[in-house]
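Kindly review this protein for my students:
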Amino acid sequence: MSLSINKCLSVLFLTLILSSTLAFAQRDIDPEDNPPLKDRMYFGGNLGLQFGTVTLIDISPLAGVMITPRFSSGLGATYQYYDDNRFQGASGSSYGGRVFARYNVLPNIFAYTEFETINWNAYNFFNDRFQRTWTDAFFVGAGYFAPFGSRGGANFTFLYNLMHDNRNSYYSEPYVIRVGFVL
């Protein structure tokens, strides 16, 4: 039953996102016009929802600025709430921030790099207990931008964590796939 609820919520959320991003118009930035900062900024992020035996809520907004017509950079934040009913005490929250850079190789294909730091409740093998810790990740990868209308769109990004460590990384695998929206 929870699987069908998750599917319904996913379809509803995607429909809302798609319908809201169609109203915005993306501007082509001509560097010779010397556009103001507000015309070169963009906003977006990721929102993840999972309910059932494992509940996960992920809110990860970002803000970026186009430095040149092909290169942009920005900042982002992450907050995640999780509750895993399979294990006692397997609930809590994680939070952190990131700085990223993106270079458009082709109009819809981009190279991407990101440094992220996350505070989470990690298991300490020496003390045989969980404790809060900061963990860093350095991602490199590429992505595809699928425009919606003339302003917004979806980013499909495939990343590899160069700092991945099986015992101390926040992510269980060095590969991360993200889907997000920008306006």
